Amino acid sequence: MVDLTLTDNGILQQAFIRIQQDVDARFDAFLPIPSDSRTRLVEAMRYATIGGGKRVRPLLTVATAALFGVNRDAAVRAGCAVEAIHAYSLIHDDLPCMDDDTLRHGKATVHLEFDEATAVLAGDSLHALAFEILSMPETSGDPFVRAEMVAALAEASGFNGMAGGQMMDIAAEGANFDLHTITRLQQLKTGALLGSAVELGAILGRLPVESRGNLRNYARDIGLAFQITDDLLDVEGDEGAAGKALRKDEKAGKATFVSLMGADDARRQVGALIDQAIGHLAIYGSEADLLRALARFIQNRDR
Amino acid sequence: MVDLTLTDNGILQQAFIRIQQDVDARFDAFLPIPSDSRTRLVEAMRYATIGGGKRVRPLLTVATAALFGVNRDAAVRAGCAVEAIHAYSLIHDDLPCMDDDTLRHGKATVHLEFDEATAVLAGDSLHALAFEILSMPETSGDPFVRAEMVAALAEASGFNGMAGGQMMDIAAEGANFDLHTITRLQQLKTGALLGSAVELGAILGRLPVESRGNLRNYARDIGLAFQITDDLLDVEGDEGAAGKALRKDEKAGKATFVSLMGADDARRQVGALIDQAIGHLAIYGSEADLLRALARFIQNRDR
Question: Torsion angle, CA of A284/A193/A204/A299, rounded to 10 degrees?
Fold first, then answer.
């Protein structure tokens, strides 16, 4: 469970507890252990998806969908699709040939708990599962909604989104990227998937594309703030609380928001982005309070 | 280009040449080189998708869709989605932690031509691209068709399909699998994706699920025959012609159709399966001649 004392926000704390339970229950149902030699694969998929992570992305989907009165079960399912992409990306990013990490959510990474081949296949299988979930009639009875969600998530995860950002991140080592390039890199690596979490909520809510500007701006601003706080936590955070290795960018000589702006300016930038993100929600009433609280949580998070 | 002298079939030869050109042209258009540090990633994706492979899967999609008068361009796009999944799976299967292969389609494998991290990300990006292609209105104007294609392909590629079969294949080493288990393994590992190639053609053709039995049986039979000929070629084939390493199963002590049945019985089984596959097409007239020729090609292929 996430420590939310910093947010001092009962609504948000309740929302986090509820989405964590819902997402765990969903993945438990999506991933029954088969009675053949795929057991190890599905166990690795369960290890990577059940009982770990803050579930910020599914909460973004659910909170956005709730603006438009979408059935919560449908929104949780769509949120799980985004979380499956997030989980697959962490498994692959942690591989020895990528970031070579040993710790994730305070547990051994998948390739250490299982093995590298199983980790590659568990990531691939979660990637496919995301699109399976989105294309099920149980997620939305409207095929247009299903197809639009698939289009949004596929773009956010591919070479024009997360995977492309990860490639830029690898190239960043010793590349002396400037603030503009780092912003673009992070927009792809982290921002695209966070944005898709909001977008899926809007699609489920049948919000026309031309009316999505405010929510997209909100998502873009919290996505950038999320990455800057990630860089701040990487420099100032505690490895035990983070449940993963920190200060790797510095060791690798990679430019980050903090190395380019300094910690104080980075913190000020986060504050400005979160204020701006909340400003984009001005057209919504109290039904957007959860999205506002989520933005403040991103500003104040300690892990 | 594939040597088709064994098929002695002008229609099929023309169809292969045309689909190879069309698929190459499509991937060229899907994968423009970006003007940032994602260049290497997109170059690896292009290396893995343009100018290699027989294109059996896209041809299956196009030939099936043609039964129902589907626009060829739409069918080629859907076939490219299946081929993108196939290409991603080859990249990941060839990784050092998986089959550790050095040669594919007569060229260095992606992780050798580029590097392991790029290979993981290129596979992941092609995986996402497949669903991007299927969810584009250009592939089908009908969102129900798009969503149904995504559902079919996602299931075929995940833990209940190709990735699950790959996991079983890894477990097969020294496991003494019997013929029943090998059949199930190959149905997942190879059969599911070949089946999805036919299924996508039927979905584009708006063939109702309850009328797809014959085509599904055809796909199941040629899929199994395809894998048995793969095992035969692995034992009897020439590495130069195959463009990849052979006789790896024997070295790894894995049971195959050939090790369990013997080469002669395996060959007879392929013949029976192909006759049976063609039998399932009896309800179609000359418009199914390409699917019939494809089945014979699978029986007689030398690579």
Answer: -30
